[in-house]
Design brief:
271 residues, elongated, six-stranded antiparallel beta sheet, two-stranded antiparallel sheet
Length: 271
């Protein structure tokens, strides 16, 4: 595993958007043509526009194949061409994504609770859910400090880089195993990088019921998270994020607020 570390500084505004760490998912059988079309869409997770040659090169397919797939996707509104002829994601992807977002039951239950936590703490509040070895932040209420830290940074992060990942993995064996198998990519100086540290951190979360991580993904930024547990298993987490000088002295105050919020969300979501 590489030991090189890319540390996004606090306040850095990047173009990572959602997806620089989006996992390449296995086909698992099924129709090859459908898999190829989905692979083409995944190419746009990082780059906003791509030409036919770019897509063909990334997927290792013939340009004619890439062209046929892009043409089909364009006909259904999943991609569209700009004035230069390059392709970008189409509005239909946005429509489907917004439907998925709006219909997420955990988000629907959590949102009013998150607003209350944001008002009480003054910090940015995140709702994270697990996806394999990563955590996807499906809702975020930002403070001014949160905007300064996060910029356009991604909403998908490796579980070892965020307190939400620790809070969830401690009570979700699937996430714990998936991250262990995928390894521990280093992002900032506080990132968990070794399996021994991963095990110790999860044991601490199980003991205390919450997770704290300093400079896990952003240098000089800290987060605190509590797991949302339904029938004992973490299905998500609620967390606060901010500059370390603001979060570190506030941990004792925010932990009971997050724990109560997580319990409230879990109780409402389980019905």
């Amino acid at each position: 595993m590489s030991t090189a570390t890319h540390e996004p500084p606090m306040g850095a505004v990047t173009d990572d958007a959602w997806c620089t760490s989006t996992p390449r998912r296995g086909g698992g059988g099924g129709l090859r043509s459908v898999g190829t079309a989905l692979d083409v869409l995944e190419c746009f997770a990082v780059d906003s526009t791509l030409g036919v040659s770019d897509v063909a090169r990334r997927l290792g397919v013939a340009k004619s194949t890439a062209h046929r797939v892009l043409t089909t996707l364009a006909g259904r509104g999943f991609v569209e061409q700009d004035a230069t002829g390059a392709y970008r994601l189409g509005l239909h992807v946005y429509e489907l994504g917004m439907l998925s977002h709006a219909r997420n039951g955990l988000r629907h239950v959590a949102l009013p609770v998150m607003r209350a936590v944001a008002e009480r703490t003054g910090h940015t509040v995140n709702l994270g859910i697990p996806d394999g070895a990563d955590i996807v932040f499906v809702e975020r209420i930002e403070s001014m400090d949160g905007v300064r830290i996060l910029g356009h940074s991604g909403r998908r992060q490796p579980a070892n880089c965020v307190s939400s990942g620790l809070a969830i993995a401690a009570f979700n064996p699937g996430v714990e195993f998936a991250r262990r198998e995928a390894g521990f990519p280093p992002k900032a100086r506080g990132t968990i990088r070794r399996v021994e540290d991963w095990d110790a951190a999860l044991a601490d979360v199980r003991r205390t019921g919450h997770a704290v991580l300093h400079s896990g993904f952003f240098t000089d930024a800290s987060s605190v998270a509590a797991p949302i547990r339904v029938r004992g298993q973490a299905v998500g987490s609620i967390s606060v994020l901010g500059p370390t000088p603001l979060i570190e002295p506030d941990v004792r105050r925010v932990v009971p607020l997050l724990t109560a919020a997580a319990n409230r969300i879990a109780k409402q979501y389980s019905f």
